[in-house]
Structures are given as C-alpha cells and as structure tokens.
Amino acid sequence: MRRLSKTIIATAVTCGLASVAHSAVLPDVQSSSPWFTDGKAAIDKQLAQAPKSKAKNIILFVGDGMGISTITAARILAGQREGNTGEENVLSFEKMPYSAQVKTYNTNQQTPDSAGTMTAMMTGVKTKAGVINIAPDTDRASCDTASGYELKTVIEMAEEKGLSTGIISTARVTHATPAATYAKVPERNWESDDKLPEEAKAAGCKDIAVQLVELEAGDGIDVVMGGGRRHFIPETITDSEGKSGKRTDGRDLTNEWLARYSDQAAFYVEDQAGFAGLDLASTDKLLALFNSSHMQYNADRLSDVGGEPTVTEMTEGALEVLKQNDNGYFLMVESGRIDHGHHAGNAYRALDDTIEFANAIQYAMDNTNPEDTLIMVTADHSHVFTIAGYPQRGNPILGLVKSTDGSGQPKSQPSLASDGMPYTTVGYANGLGFADYGDGNGGDQRYGDDAHTGRVDLSSIDTTQSGFHQEALVPLGSETHAGEDISVHAIGPAAHLLQGVIEQNVIFHVINHAAELGGEAYQ
C-alpha cells in the first residue's frame, strides 16, 4: 500500500487542485538552468502544434550504447536468425509511430558518458561527464562544489506525486545509467563507500547504494532489479556466488531495505529461483540483485550460479508489481550490457543483448494500453561500431564480407582487402581488437588481455560465433563511445512531441509534461 500522504496528493490531482504544475518543487539551480528552460521552450513549441495529452504510466527503455549502427545490425541479425536475409526485418520499437534524432554531448565533452547523458534525461539539465544529477557548475568528484547544485529526478517527482516507481538494469543498479534515476553524486564511481574518499565522507557525501536504499522521496523506489549486490553488502559477507561484498562500513543494505519496509509485502531475492517463486501480484516492494557485479550477457546468463532472468522477464515482473497502483507508475528499463559488449569489441554479445531488449519492449507494448501509457525507447550514447564494405544482400551480418561481381551476382568467396586478407562487415574504429575465444566464451574475458594491433588472416575463423572479437583500427584498452546522435522512438500519450532533432534533456520535459509531474508548467 502507498502511504497516506501519497493518497492525499493523488486525490488533490484528481480534484483539479494540482492540475497546474508549479516550478517551486524544483530547486532554482535546476529550473533556471538554460538547459532546463531551453528544453521547456522546445516542448512549448511542439504543444502549440498538437493537442495536449496525459499519460498515467511512463516506461523509459534505455539501451546503453545502442546507437543507430547497433540497431541496424541487431535488426539484420534478428531477421537472419529467423531464416530471412535480415535487412527487411524490423525490431519491435522501430514500429512505434514517432521518433526523433537526439544530440548526446555532455557540457564538457563532445563524446559523452552515461552519467551526464542520463542526468539530462532524468532532470532536464545537461551536465559534465562522470557527474550524476549535479548541475554543471561544479567540479567532478568534489563534494564541496556540488553542494547546492543537486538536481531532482523524474523518479523523485513521480514518488512525490504518488506514482509507483521502478528501475531495471542488466548492469549494476549503482552503475551510471540506473544511478542517474535516483542518486546525486559528483563522481559516478562512488558506487559504495569503499570508493568514497575520506574528504568526501567528511563533507557529507553518500555513496550511490546508500542513496538508493535511503531515498526520501515518497516512500522510495518500489521495484529495483539488476546486478551490483557487492555494493550493498559488507566485505565480511560472502554472497550466494561465493563473492565478498565491497562495503567497508559494515552495513548490509539489503537488510536495511527490508527493515525499512517491514510493514509491507517486501522481498529481497538473489537468483532466478527466488524471483520465480514470488507472488508478484501481492508484492509491494521488490529488491532483486542477481549478480555480485553486472548481470550476465544474455548469451551467458544461464551459466551463472542460480541463473538470472532475462530483461523481458524482469520487465514482466516489474509491471506486475507497479500496475497495482491506481495512480500509475514510472519504470526505467536499461539494457546495460549492450554497452559492455561494444567496449569489449564483441559485436555478438552487444547485438544479442539488443535483440533481447527489443523482446522486452515488445512485451511492454503488448501488455500496456497505448491510450494511457507512454513508452519511449532510446540510448544514452552510441559506439564506434561500423557496418562497412560492400556485402551482398543477406550476407551474415557477423560474417566475412562477400560482395557481388560486376554483373551484380553474389560471389561465393569472401572479398579481400588490399593486404590480401578477408574482412568482416562489422568492426570498430578503436578498442582491444581481434580475439577468438571460441564459441560460448569471450565477453568480459577480453578485458584481461592486451590489445591486438594490426590485421589478422580470418580465412579459417568463424567470425559469427560468440567468442569472436572484431578487429579495431586504433588499439586502446577499451573501445570508446561515439559522439554522433542517437534515436528515440515513442508510442502513447505525448509521443508526438518527439520529432525532428532534439537535445537529450528534452526527453525529461516530455515525461514531465505527459505525466504532469509538477516540475514546470507547459502550455
């Protein structure tokens, strides 16, 4: 059950007492920011051209690192897995009626990071790379300069209005993208107190995991699912995977979370079996931490101790809990490991996770009402992931390039580069480069090895299997993000506001307007 204060607020809204949004609920540093006011102006312009609309529920899907080339390649791979040529395929969210092109830069970086980009979507204000929900007038990793520049997030506003809230991530729930839904911290790496400098502790800064459990808005987040268990338990405790916690303060935040909601049907689970055993329709609060660190890639998840649910299964479970609230809900679902697959130079896992992400989105579309639920699908940034060469139609997207001959007929042998060796359709502009761990292996294993410079003869290598890592032009310890625009796709109330080319912080204003969260009045 929601607390009485939320019921009173919701009643006021129903009676029309709160039908006009008030900017007073946000700190001045947020509502007066040029990023914020420019975003509001963009929405006002759109509203002048279309009828107003109200959303009871909001679902924001964020494919971390899911740039346009990733969407295209995943679309083709999904189609080829179904026995088709692939190019004609359409992913679930590509069927949505509205879309826009989104600019992703941070205030201090041309190519962004997830902390700054997700802050823009959650608060309406762009900020620096590495900084979570702190205005850009501060220094990274500085508690002193951050004080007074904290920004309020969509989740906090939704909680204050009486909506249910949830976050899902296949990464650690304290990682930058999910953390930006609730935490305010000048350094994204402060996931638990072991990373928090002594001067930051003395200045009153709290680590991200603590901020999740102690969130004061409303009665806190209702559903939290993902990885990152190690940041919630002390170093003296060994979890179900046999791994120790990271906390040096002795706090077990999972127990603190259960104690906070002892008067409700609150549950904490660590694996697939525990999750499957829940009666979600009778659950008020759910904390599920399925891995010590990030959850497994979709291709690997069944090999983990106890097993892990898919992002589709987590989405289904979250909606089962959240839909009990008659006031509505806000849910953020992140496919975080798309990003990690790319960083490792492993296109197979990045694309496989994208396909599963599209399945989760399809589930949400099939099990919500488009008349009262706004669903948006976007990314925080892209990657230096390319689709190139001149492969023939239907060529395996993860395979070697086979072109057509002079008459336009397909060739049976791979095309050769100027060095006399074949090459793949997809590749990376930088990163760790080539590796072949064999089918069923790879992924994060790549980070433990040196970068591979130069070209490799791929003639006898199966480049379509999961252990293959594509070649990269510039050798680096990790492939990097890219700076080009990404996309947002939308269906439901206020979806029409997402058209053309927009700044990333405008996404906040669409959510704010659609759900009438009270952060700012629009036309």
From TrEMBL:
Q: Where is the active site?
A: S114
Quick check: keyword Hydrolase in the entry? yes
Q: Where does Mg(2+) bind?
A: D64, H175, T177, E334
Tell me the membrane topology, using the record's own terms.
Lipid-anchor; GPI-anchor
What's the short name of a Pfam family annotated to this entry?
Answer: Alk_phosphatase
Where along the chain is Zn(2+) bound? D64, D339, H343, D380, H381, H481
Q: Does the keyword Metal-binding apply?
A: yes
Q: What is this protein called?
A: Alkaline phosphatase
Q: Which organism is it from?
A: Kangiella geojedonensis
